[in-house]
Design goal:
rod-shaped, 107 residues, mainly alpha, 0% strand
């Protein structure tokens, strides 16, 4: 398997955990830039071959499934969603009270 195919497969495996398409595209672009920069560094500074540099760069990023799940939870943590729902409920209760008071006092 060529090094480009390994990078593509790694990126696909990371991005399959991300559900929002714009976020997935941004992560794919940033990871690609990071991997290619790391490969270039390893080739120039350590004298690794291209295949060795790609292997080292991918190993350095860690397991793609763990990385993908971490990125998903970093973008949409459960506590954030809970706080968002709680905030919505509070504002809905305030709006309901205002509607009640307006109807009670003016009608």
């Amino acid at each position: 398997m060529s090094s480009d195919e390994r990078i593509t497969r790694y990126l696909h495996q990371v991005c399959r955990h991300l559900f929002w398409p714009p976020y997935r595209a941004r992560v794919r672009r940033e990871l690609t830039d990071h991997i290619l920069s790391r490969v270039e560094y390893l080739e120039n500074e350590r004298g690794d071959t291209h295949d060795e540099a790609v292997s080292a760069a991918l190993i350095g990023l860690g397991d793609p499934d763990d990385l993908g799940e971490s990125l998903r939870y970093a973008r949409f943590p459960i506590s954030y969603l809970f706080c968002l729902l709680l905030t919505f409920l509070v504002w809905a209760a305030i709006a309901g009270c205002l509607v009640y008071l307006i109807l009670f006092f003016f009608f």
